User: Fold Sulfotransferase family protein from Aliiglaciecola lipolytica E3.
Amino acid sequence: MQKDTSTPFAFIHVPKCAGTSLRSVFFDWYGAGVIPHYYHEPTGGAPKPITLDYAIKHLKEHGSCCIFGHFNCLRGFGVRHNISFVEMFFTILREPFSQFVSEFKYKAARSRTQLNFESYLQECSPNYLNHFPNIVSFENYKEEIEKFEFIGIYEYFEESVEFMSRLLGKEAPGKMLKRQNVGPSDSFDYSKYRLEFEELNSLECEAYNYARKIFEEKVL
Assistant:
């Protein structure tokens, strides 16, 4: 069951899917073996491509090489752009509507102008499947999900982390993890837009449901 991490591997941090919380766990597990891969929003600095030679050197120096971060192919720093040599991937997915609402709240809290959720729903696509290693479609989403070594589920966060720790031969956190980077709460009723979201973004919903089905069969 334990995975071979003697070669570089990656954790794909899909935004608003508990990746910030899990990043601290990976630093506890691998220390300097973790290579962060994030867009620097204040300066507009995209993460630079990582070469295989650099990753191998990093692995030899630190005993491991886990590339952890965002890989947004729509912004030019996807997996195939920046770490094309990596073949082993982990991630955690969240129910898409919940993830979309969380990202809206995150952006609204930082916007200089007031954002309207109804307009946001019509104008913006979920920042979700564009982080996968390859382009995802209705024709290939099952195949792409099955390529992952493991996809955890946000709604079963502790179970996901515990199972991942066994796959990686690491010790699970001894206490329940505190979620980091949690969006602000408000009284707005987002639920009335759920059906509209699911109609507009059925691919994301289908992909999540399939990943969750595999997770439940494997873990629960």
